[in-house]
Design brief:
Helix content is 6%, strand content 50%. It contains two helices and 37 strands. Keywords: Signal.
Length: 451
């Protein structure tokens, strides 16, 4: 009996530690939350860059955050962030990296405890914001996600950061792409190899579409990709905008995704969906409003793309791990607001979480959240500690138990919780203004690794 009482007491102590501070829970969860991050900003070639970091913490405590440029003497400063608040940091505009080059402009963010980090490069009529994943979940293989733009004046861009000395990155260019570096021209079928030391950056650009370029390295790297200023094929308008996201390593790709074209818009062409393959001979099934399409993609790092109309959902499954991207059309209208091209990478269903802390990484914009949930757990979802009930206009996703909606958000930090242990949720945060738009995931799990 005495031994039983000791065991019960220990379990109660453990439960209190988990539910009050959350520390033990977060230690066990490989996710977008972390204590060490690296990132860069790419130059969008047209406007003055406004480089910003947005930081929050899921913990009920004050967390000290250190921001520095480890290979430069430009930034070296401490900040403090508290639960429920947003730490906003503006950075020097000359940290943006232009075109193909090696660079020392890495930004290192470290924290005493868990934080969530977003980056933003927003300007008038251009820019994007994107979530940053911690060093603890980086890996050694990525596939670049860019854009075949109808405007050829600007470039597709891909960037990599080394987090260890003697890192070698082999870049296998996609079909049709050309990159010039150090006086040598590299084309599809050739491999560009770059050696980097810790925190060094290599960025390469092409007037062609770099989508499907394979990045392999001997040590984990952080990788980013997008387009300086692009106009998606899906668009009938000619407006151009920057798109940029941090890439998800192939070991975290999965076989079940849901993509939603933002229902906040009143008019426009919707989203361009791309499904990238991690292996040869991948079979993909796409269910759009009850219409089924089955596609076979023959080679690794190739992709299938299709148009997804406004407010429509696509359920995407595959027999091998894939990555899904969404690029919105130009000049879509939401009342008096006009969006533009943006890139986001939806989280696969098996990477959804039960709790998120996130920011709205854009100022003076119409900010919102496109939220996905299980219909049977609707009463168990809270946003900023307030229950989301059936008064919201939820829309069912055909062929699943999932529903979705769009919710307007105020600027700042937010918390989303799915209280039911049996179900999880996910969403992407967005902002629109005047020919400006961003969209990015609010987070994901990295606990499941494919073989």
């Amino acid at each position: 009996m005495f031994l039983l009482r000791i065991i019960v007491a220990l379990l109660l102590i453990l439960l209190v530690q988990i539910t009050v501070s959350g520390k033990l829970l977060y230690e066990e969860c490989r996710s977008h939350m972390g204590k060490e991050f690296v990132l860069i900003f790419t130059d969008n070639s047209r406007h003055n860059n406004l480089l910003r970091l947005y930081i929050t913490t899921p913990l009920n405590e004050s967390v000290t955050v250190h921001v520095e440029t480890p290979l430069l003497s430009q930034i070296n400063q401490d900040y403090v962030v508290t639960n429920g608040s947003e730490l906003f940091i503006e950075l020097p505009i000359d940290l943006a990296i232009l075109r193909t080059t090696k660079s020392n402009k890495t930004i290192l963010v470290t924290a005493q405890n868990f934080i969530v980090l977003f980056a933003s490069n927003m300007q008038n009529n251009g820019g994007d914001s994107y979530i940053i994943y911690p060093i603890s979940v980086l890996s050694t293989e990525h596939v670049s996600v860019n854009l075949k733009s109808k405007s050829g004046s600007y470039h597709s861009v891909t960037s990599v950061i080394a987090v260890a000395d003697q890192t070698v990155v082999d870049i296998s260019l996609s079909t049709g792409s050309v990159v010039v570096f150090d006086g040598t021209t590299y084309t599809s079928g050739s491999t560009l190899s770059v050696s980097l030391n810790k925190y060094e950056v290599f960025q390469f650009t092409s007037s062609d579409d770099l989508s499907g370029t394979i990045l392999t390295s001997n040590y984990p790297i952080a990788a980013f990709s997008g387009h300086e200023l692009g106009n998606p094929e899906i668009s009938s308008e000619t407006s151009i905008d920057m798109i940029y996201e941090m890439l998800v390593p192939t070991i975290y790709w999965s076989m079940y995704y849901i993509a939603i074209s933002n229902p906040v818009f009143d008019s426009g062409e919707g989203d361009l969906i791309q499904v990238f393959t991690s292996e040869d001979n991948t079979n993909i099934m796409i269910n759009t409003s009850g219409t089924l399409d089955q596609i076979s993609v023959g080679t690794k790092a190739s992709y299938h793309q299709f148009d997804l109309p406004l407010s429509e959902a696509a359920v995407i499954t595959a027999d091998k791990p894939v990555l899904v991207s969404q690029i919105s059309a130009s000049k879509q209208l939401a009342g008096s607001y006009t969006g533009d091209a943006r890139l986001l990478l939806p989280s696969p269903v098996n990477a959804w979480l039960s709790e998120y802390s996130f920011n709205t990484p854009g100022e003076n914009m119409y900010n919102g959240l496109v939220l996905f949930a299980n219909s049977i757990s609707l009463i168990n979802i809270t946003l900023n500690e307030k229950s989301l009930n059936s008064s919201l206009q939820w829309k069912k996703i055909e062929g699943t138990n999932f529903i979705y909606t769009s919710i307007k958000l105020s600027e700042g930090a937010h918390t989303l919780t799915c209280l039911s242990a049996a179900s999880k949720c996910w969403g992407y945060v967005y902002g629109i203004h005047s020919l400006e738009e961003y969209g990015t995931s609010i987070g994901r799990s990295f606990s499941q690794v494919n073989s």
